[in-house]
Amino acid sequence: MTPFLVLVLSGCTLLATKEAVVGCQTADTVSTLHGISLGAKEANPFVAWIMEKSGTPGFVAVKAGVTLLVLHHYPVIAADLLAVANGITCAAAAHNMRVANQLSRRLEEPEVPK
Predict the structure, then answer these.
(1) SS (HEC) of 69-100
(2) Cβ atoms < 10 Å from Cβ of 45
(3) Which value, in Å, is the radius of gyration of the alpha carbons in the chain?
(4) pLDDT band for position 107 (50/70/90)?
(5) Which position has the higher pLDDT, 4 or 104?
(6) Average pLDDT rounded to a whole number, residues 71-94
(7) Which pLDDT score is estimated for 5?
(8) Is 41 helix (H, G, I), strand (E, B) or coil?
């Protein structure tokens, strides 16, 4: 087995852990709120609706609820499904942070007079 394949497979195993569920959900929640605080717009229509109807507390409650639901059913959820879902969630968090960094840099740039 090639070293690359070993790393990929071990990464999938790590992504299927309870710790990854909590970590990825937390990272997505925090990065979403950070991006929004800098002026980002939520691209997921379901999340945008939650934010519009119940604000930050509702969004955090839904994310916590999803996390607790997954942890409750963890023993019967397929490891591959968990790895994919956690990978997508962590990728969303990484995207959120990239957007937040871009917005932060724009806010720090001095205005050039016209």
Answers:
(1) HHHHHHHHCCHHHHHHHHHHHHHHHHHHHHHH
(2) 8
(3) 17
(4) confident
(5) 104
(6) 93
(7) 44
(8) coil
- 22-81 pLDDT per residue, tens: 999 999 999 999 999 999 999 999 999 999 999 999 999 999 999 999 999 999 999 989
Would you give the end-to-end CA distance of the chain in angstroms? 60
Report residue 55 as tokens. Answer: 């604000």
Instruction: Supply φ then ψ for residue 110, to 5 degrees.
Output: -70, 145
Three-state secondary-structure class, residue 15: helix
Amino acid at 60: V
Do 35 and 96 contact (CB within 8 A), yes or no? yes
Q: How many CB atoms lie within 10 A of CB 15?
A: 23
3-state helix, strand, coil in the chain (%, to 5): 85, 0, 15
Residue 74: phi and psi, rounded to 5, are -45, -45
